[in-house]
Amino acid sequence: MKIAVLLLVVTVVAGRAWAQADGDFEDNDFAEFEDFDDDFVAVTPGAPAGAAGGQKKEEAVENGDFKEIDVDDGEDEAVVEDEDSEFEHFHDEEEFEGFAGQAGDQGAEGGAPLEQQKGEPKLTMAKVPMHFRTHWDSYWMEMIMIAGLFAYFANFFMGKSKNTKLANLWLSTHRSLLEENFVLVGDDGKLENESHGLVKESESTFTLWCSGRTCCEGMLVELKMIKRQDLVAIIAGLIRPSLDQVHMKIEMSRDVMDTFVFCVGTKKTVTKMFKEQSDLSKFCTLVNKSEEKYKVPMGFSVLSEIPEASQGVLDSRMVAALNKYAPLIEYIHISDQFCGIVQQEDPNNLKQPEVKRMLMAGFNLPQNIDMETTKPLLILIFYLMERLKRFRLSKEAKSKADKNRARVEEQFLKNTHAARAEAAAQRREEKRKQEKERVMAEDDPEKQRRWEKKEQKRQAKKKAPKMKQLSIKAL
Questions:
Q1: How buried is residue 333: exposed, middle or buried, by Cβ count under 10 Å (0-12/13-18/19+)?
Q2: CA-closest candidate to residue 342, choices 248, 256, 277
Q3: How far is the CA of 137 from the CAs of 209, 253, 405, 445, in angstroms?
Q4: What whole-number distance in Å separates Cα of residue 161 and Cα of residue 204?
Q5: CA pseudo-torsion sign 237, 240, 241, 246
Q6: Torsion of CA 177, 183, 186, 187, to 10 degrees
Q7: CA–CA separation, 295 and 287 (whole Å)
Q8: How many CB atoms lie under 10 A from the CB of residue 292?
């Protein structure tokens, strides 16, 4: 019984070892290069058992065929010479789809030798046609884009240079006149003025600040050239032509200029300014038949707050200058309530905008680059400054101007009444809250009781219905 059990155990162990060895042999990709056991070696018929030199010929089993190999008796390892291993990678089905199966089918039929069956596959190169764009006319789109970019950059540098040249020409023409009327010409905001010239804001905008003259705080000259550096703007200018312009803004001293608002200029410009400028829209009205009433050139309009002030500004010398230089004059704007463009109504804004006394003018520069023709316009500005310094309104006109300003202020207070009442209530509430915190912080119960009693009376009075008391005189 013991012998039977022992034999059974030995049989099971041997079977498991055999199965494991068989599995390792199948899983190992390099099993064909390993030594084979004697059970897998067959002696070729007709060969002697002990061959001369200690060698014998044996045949190994591989894929169902017998192959003759040489085995050395004195060595543990045998070298296998496999001629077909060179093309074994063609049997990888993942890399060469369809070739492995095709070679297997041909080997099964026996129609071709083994070397041809496992040879390299015949590769067919696809015939790619030559590029069809073989002439320069095939690149017309690219050439148009390159030409457009070249034209844009060439126009940029040429337009930039021309704008700078025109601005410097205007300054050199008017520098002597500016230096006669101002102490400092070309202030750049530094302690030591270095440039004494124009400040370049952009490729088409230049500014010049002048100061040091009586009856004014200073004058800002802004040269707005055509955007010659922008090719798109040049093309748009063919549809809507524009001119080079110079704008002057002079801040008058507070006690020099009287209180009125006035504007004269071309109809298109004046209409636009009437809609955009806050002081003109609030205080002025458009004068009908301005040409007949004030003798201004045809195509000009007048915005006037007080007729007396308009007649005082448009004297004979001013009217003569307007008629002589009408093509160059765009607008002349005089105001003691200047605050910029019209702002949208904001209920939270509880303060009126800050106003300044300003003299502003806009002139067109000539197209023939003759800056000498614009010198009289600068002289006209200096004449207006002296004219405003001497001009004074009558009592009636002064009273009317004060009424207009009171009306505008009342309208502003009316529009912001709700916001101001809410802000005042919020301030009172904050004040009572601070007082309560201060009283509660003290260790005086009597004082706290009196404050609570006072607060209750105030709340009761606030909730009580409001009644009016009428007094009746005795007969």
A1: buried
A2: 277
A3: 56, 69, 73, 102
A4: 10
A5: negative
A6: -160
A7: 12
A8: 8
> Rounded to 5 degrees, what are φ and ψ at 170?
-65, -45
- Phi, psi (degrees; rounded to nearest 5) at 356: -135, 155
Q: How far apart are the first and last CA of the chain?
A: 153
CA distances from 167 to 15, 154, 161, 163 (A): 107, 20, 10, 6
Tokens of 341: 């463009």
Residue 334 vs residues 129, 283, 347, 385, 405: alpha-carbon distances, Å? 78, 12, 29, 10, 16
Q: For 74-139, where are the alpha helices, taking DSSP H only? A: 99-109, 114-117
Measure Cα distances from 224 to 80, 218, 242 in Å. 95, 19, 11
Instruction: Tell me which residue of 46, 79, 40 sits closest to 63, measured CA to CA.
Output: 40
Whether residue 371 contacts residue 441, with contact meaning beta carbons closer than 8 Å, is answered with no
Question: What is the signed CA dihedral for 420, 422, 425, 430, rounded to 10 degrees?
Answer: -100
Integer Cα distance of 249 and 247 in angstroms: 7
* Helix-then-strand count for the chain, H and E: 14, 13
Tens digit of each residue's pLDDT (9 = 90 or more) over 322-378: 999 999 999 999 999 998 888 776 666 667 788 899 999 999 998 877 888 899 999
What is the reported pTM?
0.63
Main-chain phi, psi angles of 150, to 5 degrees: -60, -45
Q: Report the b/e string of 94-130 with b at 16+ CB within 10 A.
A: eeeeebbeebeebeeeeeeeeeebbeeeeeeeeeeee
CA dist., res. 243 & res. 249, Å (int): 19
Q: 85, exposed or middle or buried, with CB in 10 Å at 0-12, 13-18, 19+?
A: exposed
Tokens of 309: 């002030």
Greatest pairwise CA separation for the chain in angstroms: 170
pLDDT, tens digit, 9 for 90 and up, residues 27-69 = 455 445 454 444 444 444 444 444 444 444 444 444 444 444 4
HEC sequence for 162-228 = HHHHHHHHHHHHHHHHHHHHCCEECCCCCCCCCCCCCEECCCCEEEEEEECCCCEEEEEEEEECCCC
The token duo for 23 is 């599995």
